[in-house]
Amino acid sequence: MPQNPCVSVNEDSATSHPAVWNRIHLGETASTNDVCRALPPWSAVRADSQTRGRGRFGRAFVSQKGGLWLSASLPTPGPAEIWAGFSLRVGASILTRLRALGLPAARLRWPNDILLGPRKVAGLLIEQPASGALVVGFGMNVLNEPWNDMPELKETSTRLAEWLSPVPDLEFLTDEILAALADAHQQMLAGGMRAAIEELNAQWTDPQPIEITLSSGSTVRGAFIGLTPNGHLQLLDQTGSVFLVEHPTVERLRELEG
pTM for the full model? Predict the structure, then answer.
């Protein structure tokens, strides 16, 4: 059960965005996404820790104290197709904020992982409950060390404290991420997924060797070079020819050493 919620309204957000966030801070909860899905749009829930944090396909997500564990509910006006690929728009908007903080190495690994260099620092989980709102979950390692709970993460994860000094406090980072989400919401209404893909493709300039596990259980390898306008993955094979992998068939994407 949520413990000692403190509700506050961020009046400053109204100066740059039409919505005012209703913000809830919890000590510990199972999942901020689960709390947020019962709240109206423009609600945001941050917890000091989560006991059942999750990523895509229900994978466990270590959520210790010292990290940023945040979920936000956003309205979805207009036809449903407007919101297809919203995770890409959110990722692009968050990258803009992180780079402005002095993190030029920040990048998006399709579809929802934020990396600093070769290692993951943050992840997104976007869900759509029966209410029709979008619930955006965001988790970032800041001062915490997730590899203390899962040693296998030592080779694949990092934390903000390794890249910034001094480390921004969690309240400031919350403000930045919520501003990025409000930006993404406005930009999605204005330009849809294609504008986000164009922005990300401009950053995916170096072919990245990857291995993709498909929903069928088979795997494919190639060098990722970006997305098509409708969101399918473009890869180079060993001969330098381009082939496509349709995004709904992708179960997992893993980067390989070049």
Answer: 0.87
